[in-house]
């Protein structure tokens, strides 16, 4: 079984992060279809170190939004130590609870490190996948699940946002959602109908970063190049979010 390249490419190319979602309900079975795709993600040693938690209850989402807002105020203090043009667009949004408090469904991805016993043992001694022990593979497995789910969302004409969870919120929400201590709530996939124009996609061209056979130093990025890339990426997203949230984009 295969789907044609053009169909897959269009899905991969046009999927976007929608950071403003409508509260309209989803057709029945939508969340299950998304999770069904998630469980087929590639994962090291087929350990499948994941569980999912679906949150739709308005009271739970409201509490989570309040927790997130309190944490976000702290993160904002840190982010504001950068010049405005380099700040992440999320920090330009109006004050208040995040829009996702009203989205129809959120899928939390929970990790279970014990499942990593299924994988090979030697990376624990040699290091692999960019670090020591099972950690790097574990996180990549969970990231792959999230990626699969976001693509599934896009395939249905819906919008999604990836919600990272820093450690203080992880601990708080594990208690709120009654998740056992030996598991780790990693990230949320927020789902709903988009409530903003499609944000412009920004990706570097292949010609800027693909090397054939040996590394081409003409393509090597200096630190200045990296900073310029951030500026280019930020300005496009900021304009889209500025329009959605009716705020003046930074630097305009
Ligand atoms: C590991 C990871 C963490 C992310 N965390 C967040 C997040 O907390 N909030 C958010 O709005 N987007 C988050 N994103 C989405 C990225 O910001 C987004 O994919 C990127 O800016 C490219 O935009 P696009 O998804 O519209 O193509 C995350 C993505 C990944 C892979």
Large-scale geometry: globular
| Number of separate structural domains | 1
User: Which stretches are low in confidence, meaning pLDDT under 50 for 5 or more residues running?
Assistant: none
Rounded to the nearest angstrom, the radius of gyration is 20 Å
**Cofactors and ligands:** flavin mononucleotide
Q: Approximately what portion of the residues adopt beta-strand conformation?
A: 5-15%
Number of strands: 4
Return the CATH topology: NADH Oxidase
Given helix and strand content, the structural type is alpha+beta
Q: What does the main sheet amount to? A: 4 strands, antiparallel
End-to-end distance = 49 Å
CATH H-tier superfamily: NADH Oxidase
Strand arrangement in the largest pleated sheet:
1-2-4-3
Protein topology:
Blueprint: H1 5-14, H2 30-38, E1 50-55, H3 58-79, E2 105-111, H4 123-126, H5 135-155, E3 159-164, H6 167-176, E4 184-192, H7 223-245
Helix pairs in contact: 2-5, 3-6
The structure holds flavin mononucleotide (FMN).
Main attributes of the structure:
single chain; 252 residues; alpha+beta; NADH Oxidase; four-stranded antiparallel sheet; 7 helices; 39% helix; globular; binds flavin mononucleotide
How is this structure best described in words?
The structure is a single chain. With 252 residues, the chain is an alpha+beta fold. It has a single domain, classed as NADH Oxidase, CATH 3.40.109. Helix content is 39%, strand content 11%. The protein has seven helices and four strands, in the order ααβαβααβαβα. It has helices at 5-14, 30-38, 58-79, 123-126, 135-155, 167-176, 223-245; strands at residues 50-55, 105-111, 159-164, 184-192. The chain has a four-stranded antiparallel sheet, with helices on both faces. Helix 3 (58-79) runs antiparallel to helix 6. The longest helix has 23 residues, at 223-245. The protein is globular. The protein starts with a helix and ends in a 7-residue tail after the last helix.
